[in-house]
Amino acid sequence: MAATHSILIVGAGVFGLTAARELRRRGWDVTVIEPGPVPTPTAASTDISKVVRMDYGADDFWTALGKKSLARWAEWNMESGQTLFHKDGFLVLSREAMRPGGFEFESFKILTGQGEKLQRLDSVAVAQRFPAWAADKYPAGYLNPTGGWAESSKTGAWLAARARREGVRLCEHCAFERLLETESRVIGVRAKDGREFRAEFTLLATGAWTPTLLPELSGVMWATGQPVLHFRVANPTQWQAPHFPVWAADIGRTGWYGFPALADGTLKVANHGPGRRVHPDEPREISPQDEPRFRDFLRDTFPALADAPLIGTRLCLYCDTFDGNFWLDHHPQRPGLVIAAGDSGHAFKFAPVLGELIADAVEGKEHPARKRFAWREPKVMGGEGARAR
Q1: Apex CA 118: angle with CA 107 and CA 251, to 5°?
Q2: Which of 186, 289, 290, 355 has the fewest CB atoms within 10 Å, counting from its CB?
Q3: Among candidates 244, 224, 194, 243, which has minimal Cα distance to 318?
Q4: What is the mean pLDDT of residues 244-262?
C-alpha cells in the first residue's frame, strides 16, 4: 500500500493499537480515536495481568501462533526496556489422569512432539515444588517453563507511546457517535463532540461494544462478563514463581486459572466459563454468587488462601464469537468498513502478532489465518483450544 492510504481506527485497546503501529509501519496514514484516556479503564486489555502461553490442546493453529507470540514478547521486552512479559512458566494441572481428548493431554502431546521441554508432574512432584496446592487433588499435569504473564496495562501504555512516536495520531477523550456514510460506503466517523474524521477505511476495534454498534453481528458475537477477583497475601514471595507461577486448575472442565502475586501482595484469580451476557455500558459488577464460589475453589485447591482478604473485583468483558476465533475482515455490505473484534477472552497473549493479522485483513492479503478470522456463518470452526482460554 502507498503512503497515501488512510485509515481511521476506532478504539485504542490491544486490537486498535497493534493495528495502528503495523499499518503505520506499512506506510499508512493512521488516526486512532478513543473515548477515554489511553489505556482506557473500560478496555478488556486494561488489567494488571494476562496469561501468555502456547498451550492450546490439539489445535495446531493456535499453538503455532502462541509460539510465535512468545518469541515476540521477548523482543518487546528488549525493545521497550521494560519487563512487559514475565517468563514465569505455565503450570497446567488436572484432577484426573491426563487422557486423550483432554486439554492437558493434547497440549502435552502436541508440544512435546514439537520438541518443547515440558516437565511432567504427579501429586508427589506437585507437593514438593508447588506447596500451595492441595496436591492430592491434582494427580497429573505438567509445567511449561516457556509460558508466563504480561503486564497488560503497562503494555497498552507502551504501545500508545510507541504509536505516537511512530507517527500515529491518537485522539483521546473522543467518543464515537456514528459512522459517516456516502450511500453504502463508510467514509469515517462523527464523534460525540461534533468532530468528523474521514479516511479511506474505518476500522472498528471496539471490543465488547462491537455487536452493539453493528447489530448485524449480534448473531455471531456478543459481550459476556467474566468474574475476576483480587485477594491479598501477606507474604508475596511465597506466592510467586518458581513456587507459584501462572496456573490452570483442570481448566478444560472448570475454567479456573490465576497468577503469581504482585509485589504488593495482590493475587488475581479468575474463571473462564460461559459468562453472562451483558451490555458493555452497564455497571460492571460481579454477581453475589461469585465470591462464595471462588472461596469454595480456593478452600479446595489452595487451602492457605481460603480466608485471604478480598481487595478488589472486576467483571472482565469478552467479545465472544460463536466459535472462539477472532473476527478480522472487511464488512461485506459496507465498503470502507473493517472489523477487528471477537477477542473471545484469549487475544491479549497474541498482542505482538495481532497487528500483522489485522493489517493483512485490511490490505486483503491471503494467508492461512485469514480464512479462520474471515466474515463467516455460524458453524464449528476451530478446536477445543480456542475455547480453553
Answers
A1: 40
A2: 289
A3: 224
A4: 97
Q: What is the pLDDT of residues 319-334, one digit of tens each?
A: 999 999 999 999 999 9
Statement to judge: residues 261 and 167 lie in one domain: no
Query: How is residue 277 written as a grid cell?
Result: 451476557
User: pTM for the whole thing?
Assistant: 0.94
Q: Are residues 297 and 370 in the same domain?
A: no
370 and 272 part of one domain:
no
pLDDT digits (tens, 9 = 90+) for 178-227: 999 998 899 999 999 999 999 999 999 999 999 999 999 999 999 999 99
Total domains in the fold of the chain: 2
230: domain range? 51-150+222-318
User: Do 187 and 146 share a structural domain?
Assistant: no
Residue 103 shares a structural domain with residue 134:
yes
